[in-house]
């Protein structure tokens, strides 16, 4: 019996070693939604770019519920190229879930997302990797000479990037550029929701990752239809509110709720003072309590302030439950020196 157990353990160890050995150097993953005419020329460019790197690579296409023939083309490409894997999502979930699916499926030591519309240039992958080798964990592409409409895309993008840089604390010119390079460990604790794939460099920076940015090529769309519009700007604003909250108050939510409660109490107190001055000191004029809304406003704000404090306490309990139930630390270690191999 012991021999059987030992053989089973040995076999599992061999399989684990084999999976490590089989892990490619690079995982390129591309969300795809109705890009049928672009897929063949894109894969040819990507194939040429990866062949020149001299590194092992895999290509993951994530079909995000395409309604054209994209999935059929991807099936054909997968049969022709052993490096290709295809994830077909059940419906159109959006770019962020598709990116998350690509991250989860990737096995490489370096993860490189990019768009499937031929506007990103696969030849820039080498430059991203070269910059990554300088000691960075994240390298972001910057579409410096962007080939998009000025008023509907460029100007809103410039404003959004400036705002994101100020709030997130990571100054980048182009958060919307999908072409980036990540070391796998920098994405270990990244979980994506909403439209937050563009904020991955901020998440990585919170974990201590060093972030760099380099200019990359950007080509005008020649085939297919753009899926972006001004409506995404509104979503970015909402996501920025979440980013700001997480950046400043993720582990101490009582601070923001407490400040809101104190401000509400202050306004409630001022309303009460004015109500008493108007009734008993005739300043600025005489008014009984029933002749002014100030007493009602005082009570409403008082109750609201109490609610803010209790909401903060509940949020504190949730944060502690989240970290303690999953044994999640509130810090990240970059390097361990002198701890020995057992740590």
What does this entry look like structurally?
- With 343 residues, the chain is α/β, with parallel strands linked by helices.
- It folds into 2 domains: 228 residues, Spore Coat Polysaccharide Biosynthesis Protein SpsA, Chain A, CATH 3.90.550; 73 residues.
- It is built from 10 helices and 7 strands.
- Strands 3-2-1-4-6-5-7 form a 7-stranded mixed sheet, with helices on both faces.
- Strand 2, helix 3 and strand 3 form a beta-alpha-beta unit.
- Helix 2 packs parallel to helix 3, helix 6 runs parallel beside helix 8 and helix 9 runs antiparallel to helix 10.
- The N terminus is likely disordered.
Short description:
It is built from 10 helices and 7 strands.
Layout of strands and helices, then pairs:
Blueprint: H1 2-22, E1 26-32, H2 36-51, E2 57-63, H3 70-80, E3 84-88, H4 95-105, E4 110-113, H5 125-132, E5 138-142, H6 150-168, E6 180-183, H7 200-206, E7 211-215, H8 231-249, H9 253-280, H10 294-325
Parallel strand pairs: 1-2, 1-4, 2-3, 5-7
Antiparallel strand pairs: 4-6, 5-6
Helix pairs in contact: 2-3, 6-8, 9-10
């Amino acid at each position: 019996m012991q021999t059987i157990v030992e053989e089973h353990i040995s076999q599992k160890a061999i399989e684990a070693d084999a999976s490590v050995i089989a892990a490619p150097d690079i995982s390129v993953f591309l969300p795809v939604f109705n890009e049928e005419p672009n897929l063949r020329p894109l894969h040819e460019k990507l194939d040429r770019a990866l062949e020149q790197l001299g590194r092992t690579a895999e290509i993951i296409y994530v079909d995000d519920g395409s309604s054209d023939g994209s999935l059929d083309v991807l099936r054909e490409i997968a049969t022709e190229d052993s490096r290709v894997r295809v994830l077909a999502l059940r419906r159109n979930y959006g770019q962020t879930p598709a990116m998350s699916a690509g991250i989860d499926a990737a096995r490489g030591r370096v993860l490189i997302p990019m768009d499937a519309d031929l506007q990103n240039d696969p030849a820039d992958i080498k430059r991203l990797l070269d910059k990554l080798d300088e000691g960075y964990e994240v390298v972001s592409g910057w579409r410096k000479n962007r080939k998009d409409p000025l008023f509907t895309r460029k100007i809103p993008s410039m404003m959004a990037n400036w705002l994101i840089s100020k709030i997130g604390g990571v100054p980048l010119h182009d958060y919307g550029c999908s072409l980036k390079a990540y070391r796998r460990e920098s994405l270990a604790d990244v979980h994506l929701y909403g439209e937050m794939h563009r904020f991955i460099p901020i998440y990585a920076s919170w974990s201590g990752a060093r972030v760099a940015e380099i200019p990359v090529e950007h080509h005008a769309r020649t085939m297919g239809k753009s899926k972006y519009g001004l409506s995404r700007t509104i979503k970015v604003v909402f996501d920025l509110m979440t980013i700001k909250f997480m950046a400043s108050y993720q582990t101490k939510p009582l601070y923001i709720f407490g400040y809101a409660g104190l401000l509400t109490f202050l306004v409630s107190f001022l309303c009460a003072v004015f109500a008493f001055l108007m009734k008993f000191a005739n300043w600025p004029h005489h008014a009984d309590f029933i002749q002014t809304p100030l007493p009602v406003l005082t009570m409403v704000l008082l109750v609201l302030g109490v609610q803010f404090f209790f909401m903060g306490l509940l949020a504190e309990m949730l944060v502690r439950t989240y970290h303690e139930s999953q044994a999640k630390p509130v810090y990240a270690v970059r390097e361990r020196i002198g701890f020995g191999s057992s740590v």
